[in-house]
Amino acid sequence: MKTILLTGGCGFIGSHFVERLVASGYRVVNLDALTYAGDVANVSSVAKADNYVFVHGDIGDGALVQRVLSEHQPNVVFNLAAESHVDRSIDDAQPFLKTNVMSVYALLAQCLAYWRNVASDQQSKFLFVQMSTDEVYGSIEDGLFTEQSNYAPNSPYAASKAAGDHLVRSFRVTHGLPTAVVHASNTYGPRQFPEKLIPHMISSALAGQPLPVYGRGVQIRDWLYVDDLAMGLERVVKSGEDGGVYNFSGGDERKNIDTVTELCGLLDELAPAHDTYSDAITYVKDRPGHDMRYAMSNALVGDRFGWTPTTSFADGLRTTVAWYLDNRDWTKRIAAKGYDLKRIGTG
Ligand SMILES: NC(=O)c1ccc[n+]([C@@H]2O[C@H](COP(=O)([O-])OP(=O)(O)OC[C@H]3O[C@@H](n4cnc5c(N)ncnc54)[C@H](O)[C@@H]3O)[C@@H](O)[C@H]2O)c1
Asked: What is the pTM of this model?
């Protein structure tokens, strides 16, 4: 049984990935600092599983990471821990530099020391996987980014993720640590922190608040349902290769205003109020440096892993809205940890 040290497993994507790996029989060690964005309740379904261990701690804590590596002897380290919200990085980039750059460096340094000491027949089987984003490639007017595209990050968040990716690359080239990097497009689904576009709009609509859309809402995002991404990440655990770069995208592009309008239509159906929710849409001053379009090809992961997204946006959005309606207490409790309804998110 492979052991996976997964970081950030109490967050949105991490919690779905943890559930998937545990169900598939991997031994999963989840290291999470439980920042405002993480909550152990997100992984309560696996808390008692024999093949699951939770460690509360920071990826930047070298002594702790060293102990966890030596105790659990992972075959794969999958780093999802991050500061992940673009708007927060515009307000203050410091926590992004700390977690997404310095702490990635600290994690890599511990992984390198660990890897140098594992048995030589196991060294080539080890893999450090860095979870990254399509945002490191910047904005694209036409066509699709591929795994060969150059980095051109535009927000402090994207720049910090790009720096983390470059450190990962340097540890591979300089020290020989086997590494891979995954880029995912805008991911959505249950348990996403309510500052991101889709849950933010759902929470605001249900609270009778305005639905703030940046600019004219014409920015284009490519949406990927979280279970589809988790399925792809599991393929990386199973068959990812040293030096691999893997782009996972939903192939479902739409303007932000169309996403919000579709969401309002679903809320009208599932949680009718006396007015249509779309009446609450308000256009607000655009975000500085706002990327117009993200779009990546997922051809390589289709060829390499036979992966393709299986959830249409219509189905994924319906499941997501239904989940937030059924879990209003979750949103209230999570929101109390540092979410301001007036903070605008575009995911
Ligand atoms: N959500 C998206 O649309 C998206 C798209 C592409 C890539 N990503 C990347 O995927 C990863 C997960 O994203 P998410 O949306 O699930 O994020 P999230 O903000 O929901 O969760 C982040 C998790 O990391 C933990 N964490 C933060 N700092 C830590 C530290 N120093 N040590 C240990 N744990 C720490 C938090 O407690 C939380 O559980 C991130 O690396 C993000 O950059 C996200």
From this structure: 0.97
Rounded to the nearest integer, the mean pLDDT of the chain is: 95
Pocket, ligand 1, Cβ cutoff 6 A:
7-8, 10-14, 31-35, 37-38, 58-60, 80-82, 84, 99, 103, 131, 133, 161, 184, 186-187, 193, 347
Amino acid in position 300: L
Q: What is the dihedral of CA 110, 112, 114, 120, to 10 degrees?
A: 180
What domains are there in the chain, each with its CATH number? 3-190+223-248 (3.40.50.720)
Backbone angles phi, psi at 145, to 5 degrees: -70, 150
CA quadruple 3, 58, 78, 330: dihedral sign: positive
Look at ligand 1, atom 41, and give the residue with the nearest C-alpha.
Answer: 80
| H helical segments located in 207-312 | 226-239, 256-270, 299-305
* Helix, coil or strand: residue 111: helix
* pLDDT tens digits along 156-180: 999 999 999 999 999 999 999 999 9
* CA pair distance 9, 38, nearest whole angstrom: 8
Question: For 38-93, how does the pLDDT look when each residue is reduced to its tens digit (9 = 90+)?
Answer: 999 999 999 999 999 999 999 999 999 999 999 999 999 999 999 999 999 999 99
User: Which of 114, 157, 225, 294 is labelled catalytic?
Assistant: 157
Q: Is the pLDDT of residue 302 over 70?
A: yes
